[in-house]
Design brief:
Length: 114
């Protein structure tokens, strides 16, 4: 996707504060952090959203969560806790249409269900 900002981060055409990269995923710090730790874990290949995942993507999505767990440990927030979020489409509040997993933590957060 030539006009996708996160594809450009994967390719290095747009700079980011990278924290992890392997053959499947890239992780970098959110430019507008909503928590002390706010990292985005994204697939290296373009997928618009959770809606556009295919069955073959199941291992990739599992890997995204596994990497999030590892990064939470690295950030020192495993015990204090963290939240993993994938916003989808308008009602979910998705603003960048390259699927991504938010890793948020470092201080208590308001419960999203109120
Ligand atoms: P969402 O609203 O769930 O689609 O999340 C998109 C996230 O991407 C937001 O938290 C933005 O702050 C973040 N974001 C947008 N552009 C960049 C960028 N160039 N580098 C890092 N994070 C970004
Ligand atoms: Zn993309």
């Amino acid at each position: 996707m030539s006009d996708c900002i996160f594809c450009k981060i994967v390719s290095g055409d747009i700079p980011s504060t990278g924290v992890y990269k392997d053959e499947l995923v890239t992780a970098f710090r959110d430019i507008n952090p909503a928590a002390r730790t706010h990292i985005l874990i994204i697939p290296n290949k373009h997928i618009d959203s959770v809606n556009l995942m295919i069955a073959d993507d199941k291992p990739l999505v599992g890997h995204m969560f596994f990497v999030a767990r590892e990064l939470a440990a690295k950030e020192g927030i495993s015990e204090s806790g963290y939240r993993l979020i994938m916003n989808t489409n308008a009602d979910g509040g998705q603003t960048v249409f390259h699927m991504h997993l938010h890793l948020l933590g470092g201080a208590p957060m308001k419960h999203p269900m109120g």
